[in-house]
Structure formats: C-alpha cells, structure tokens
Design brief:
The chain is mostly helical. It contains seven helices and no strands.
Length: 145
Amino acid sequence: MNKKTLPDFQTDWEQIVIKALSNYSSLSADERIWYNIQCLIADVCNGGLISHYYNSGANHNKETIIDLETLGYPDIADLLLQINKLFPNGEPSVDIFERNDAINSWEDDNIERDYWFAELDEYFYNRDEELEQALIYHIETKIVK
C-alpha cells in the first residue's frame, strides 16, 4: 500500500490557496486546517519555526494554533505559543512588516535563544512526518473524498 503525500493533492491544494488568498474567512473549518497546517509545515521545512513568523503563515497564527489542537497536536501548538511570548504583548502582529520589525529588534548574538530555537525546531522535525500524515488523513476524510 502506497502512502499518500501532500503533493498527491496538488490540484485541490491550489484551489484552497486561491480561496484562502482571495478571502481567507471563506474557508470552511476543514479547509482552514489544511491551509494553515500545510503552510506551517512548508515554512518550518524551509527555515525552522521562525520562518512561520517571517512569512505570511503567522498572519493566521491564532488559527494555526487552534487547528493544531483540533488535529490532536497541542504539543506543536505549544511551540508556537512559546515563541509568541517573544513578541510585544505575547502575540505576533498579524501584519507581516510589524512582525518582522519585532523579530529584527531581537538581539543578534543571543546564543541561548538560538539554542532554544534549535531545540524547538528539532522537536517539530521529530513530529513533522506524523503531523503530515494526520493532515493527509484529514484531507482524505474531510475534504477530498
């Protein structure tokens, strides 16, 4: 039996992205889970958890945390909650420029923070494949039948 991967759903994914970019609030709860979790996975795999914040994924950080919990990954949601504490008022701005300004204001040579981020990334990478399979199951059972 061949396990499916996210690229197996590329055509449907493209439609979700178009819908999300034109009117994010029009996504169904199940589509939102797909969009937020796949964006998170892609961001993290392209530069660690901080990439979620540098890129547009964190525009929907609150929803991503909720969606991780809905999928059964409160531990990964907690990684984001921990990072959120670094931002003013304990939450990242929904504005990408404000978020990046906040990130850029952090000390450059903070070895302890860099080590902490590396630990969080390693934790995510150890759960990444399982999270992706849970997302694929969600896609197959809730969206693409």
